[in-house]
Design goal:
six-stranded parallel sheet; 14 helices; alpha/beta; Transcription Regulator spoIIAA; globular; binds S-adenosyl-L-homocysteine; binds iron/sulfur cluster; 36% helix; binds FE3-S4 cluster; single chain
């Protein structure tokens, strides 16, 4: 049967465009890997593709609009090449799939966030024009056991993909049960489920044996790993810290990272890992969302700023070199001038190395979209601009602290007259000159210049 499929689909090219977070990036790889079993190869150009997959994000209205306008544009492409297939995956597909299919007959398949592993099978099934929407979610869903096949070559012409050979994502959990009032993720990704520890360890081991040096463990709230279902039959108290320690000891793994975390579930046990797990990178993305306790309460975040500051203090005590970053929502419904000032104050207290900040955006199905105390758009824009300009200054100050320091960077790209790499703290470093090195190699450098978004260095 599979052989028939393969003959049928021989030599076809697919092109995936990924929007959104790292979890979506990993899902795109999984789809690519699944499709390779059906004779599809990944192409570099949308123009040559027999199959276009949009892996979509709906975290803010703008993210969703981008997808919709690209889908509108693809209508004309499909008119010119009716044999080409269009598939919509990811969070917009999960939430809006049925209405997309109704409005856009040029879309061939909608595939939900829990169904991506079988994309090849569903694509074939959709050929007769039936079953074009596959978005069922299961209450007792389990993440399939899935070992990656390392499809990228170090010699790849695509610099980003060549670097990917050495740095890879591994999904450890799906979904989210937290229901922060603004957030669409529990609806698009379903109930929280953790993957079996053994499957994760096997996957990382295989990757490292194939030459991968850096692993990032992925989930919407990795701190609660193992809380909703059994992940290790031999140890009922197995949790994220234990997983981190077990993965860190896999021989050959040089750098370990994870994302993303909700402060409400951050434990002392996890903070301690930053002190004594050698290959755990001194970098932590800890989204706070607001500096005001009132706003945090309305967001259903379940921690206070005092608790957050204690965590920051402890992290820095255990790991003085740690680089902290955060996410901030500006203009959440009911955010007053005082609430916003509290957010600005938090910036001064923590001095994050970096932050991602966004204007609050109403999302369908969320509780806050029903709140009636929305903040005016202009006020949101003014507050966001003020926040971002202060954060930029702080990021520069933080980067300047690196000047004169020796760092190890992992090479991500090699150009004619320079090399780009990354520090363990996740900062981008440019080294000028012709350097005889390889993507994935570790170089010792001395930082000699700090910009807002990157550093410059010389070889030691
Ligand atoms: N799981 C992570 C967040 C993942 S979503 C956590 O709990 O912190 C990524 C970021 O998008 C969030 O941290 C938040 O800052 C932002 N975001 C989510 N919903 C949003 C909305 N409705 N409007 C604006 N920003 C939003
Ligand atoms: Fe969204 Fe909150 Fe879950 Fe993060 S923890 S994904 S913000 S609901
Ligand atoms: Fe976006 Fe879905 Fe990730 S909404 S941020 S792609 S989980």
């Amino acid at each position: 049967m599979i052989y028939e499929y393969m003959k049928h689909m021989e030599n076809k090219q697919f092109f995936i465009k990924t929007f959104g977070c790292q979890m979506n990036q990993r899902d795109s790889e999984i789809m690519a890997q699944s499709l390779s079993r059906f004779g599809y190869v990944e192409g570099m150009d949308i123009k040559d593709a027999d199959l276009i997959i949009l892996n979509t994000c709906s975290i803010r209205a703008k993210a969703e609009q981008k997808v919709m306008s690209l889908l509108g544009y693809l209508r004309k492409t499909k008119e010119k090449r009716p044999d080409m297939k269009i598939c919509v995956a990811g969070c917009v597909a999960q939430q809006e799939g049925k209405s997309i299919i109704d409005r856009m007959p040029h879309v061939d398949l909608i595939i939900g966030t829990q169904n991506i592993y079988q994309i090849g099978e569903y694509l074939l099934a959709a050929e007769d024009g039936k079953h074009r929407v596959v978005t069922q979610m299961e209450d007792n869903y389990q993440i399939p056991r899935f070992l990656p096949n390392i499809p990228f070559s170090a010699d790849s012409a695509d610099a980003e993909k060549a670097a990917f050979q050495f740095s890879r994502f591994v999904t450890i959990m799906q979904g989210c049960n937290n229901y922060c009032t603004y957030c669409v993720v529990p609806y698009t990704r379903g109930r929280e489920v953790s993957r079996m520890a053994k499957d994760i360890v096997d996957e990382v081991t295989l990757l490292v044996q194939s030459g991968v040096k850096e692993i990032t463990l992925l989930g919407q709230n990795v701190n609660s790993y193992g809380r909703t279902n059994e992940v290790c039959p031999d140890n009922s108290s197995y949790n994220f810290s234990k997983l981190l320690r077990q993965v860190s000891s896999i021989e050959g793994l040089e750098r370990l990272r994870f994302t993303t975390s909700n402060p409400k579930d951050l434990t002392d046990e996890l903070i301690a890992c930053f002190k004594d797990v050698d290959n755990l990178c001194p970098q932590f993305h800890l989204p706070v969302q607001s500096g005001s306790d009132n706003v945090l309460k309305a967001m259903n975040r379940k921690y206070s700023i005092a608790q957050y500051l204690q965590q920051v203090e402890k992290l820095r005590e255990y790991c003085p070199t740690i680089a902290l970053s955060t996410d901030m929502i500006i203009g959440f419904p009911g955010e007053t001038d005082e609430d916003f000032e509290a957010t600005m104050e938090l910036l001064e207290k923590v001095k994050f190395h970096g932050s991602f900040s966004f204007k609050y955006s109403d999302r369908p199905g969320t509780r806050s979209s029903e709140f009636d105390n929305k903040v005016d758009e202009t006020i949101k824009s003014e507050r966001l601009a003020r926040f971002q300009s202060r954060q930029d200054e702080i990021s520069l100050e933080r980067n300047e602290e690196f000047v004169g320091q020796e760092k190890q960077i992992m090479v991500e790209a090699i150009y004619e007259d320079s090399v780009k790499g990354r520090t363990a703290t996740h900062h981008i470093v440019h080294v000028k000159g012709q350097v005889n090195t390889k993507v994935g190699a570790m170089l010792k450098v001395k930082i000699n210049f700090a910009g807002q978004h990157s550093l410059k260095a010389e070889l030691i």
